Amino acid sequence: MKLVGIISTAVLFLLLGTTAPAYAQQEEHAQEAKPAQHAQQKQEAKQAKSSQRAEQKQEAQRAKSSQHAEQKQEAQQAKSSQHAEQKQEAQQAKSAQHAQQQEHAQQPQAVASKSGASHYGRISDTSYRAHFGRGHSFHMGRPQMIEGYNRFQYGGYWFGFNEGWPEGWGYNDDFYVEYIDGVYYMFNLRHPGFRLTLNIF
Question: What are the extents of the domains in the chain?
Answer without folding.
Answer: 1-80, 111-200
